[in-house]
């Protein structure tokens, strides 16, 4: 791929991310009735996916300092969304895991988000939905090829 094509793809991706957020996802959807911030929710989403993470893992994934992660986690512990569990192999390692309350919160939030997305997508006719479906499959396949770290 030549440099101009690569720059175009990068520009399109940089345009697409804020558009997704603005048009499809309200940042604080139904977080108003909680005292959770979007950062708290990001931690809950990551833990739901990974099952358990260390403070360092969370810090790296969110690109925030460990002291800030500690503040986030402490708040989620008070809200009974997460708990700390020591590793059986190495007692120096402490994992953060979702509690049943945290899992329930995630499931409820995901249902609300899915319902909102479905409502927004009702403006499309069947052909538009098929085209979007195909485009999303291609994007998903392409993004899956990228190594994460």
TrEMBL record:
Would the keyword Transcription regulation turn up in this protein's UniProt record? Answer: yes
Q: Mind telling me which SMART domains this protein's record contains? A: HTH_MARR
Q: Which UniProt keywords apply?
A: DNA-binding, Transcription, Transcription regulation
Family annotation (InterPro entries): HTH_MarR-typ, WH-like_DNA-bd_sf, WH_DNA-bd_sf
**Domain HTH marR-type spans what residues?**
3-141
Keyword rRNA processing assigned to the entry: answer is no
Coiled-coil segments: none
Gene3D superfamilies per the UniProt record, alphabetical: Winged helix-like DNA-binding domain superfamily/Winged helix DNA-binding domain
Pfam families to which the protein is assigned, alphabetical: MarR
State one molecular function term (GO).
DNA-binding transcription factor activity
The identity of this protein, by name, is Transcriptional regulator, MarR family
* Organism, as annotated: Alkaliphilus metalliredigens (strain QYMF)
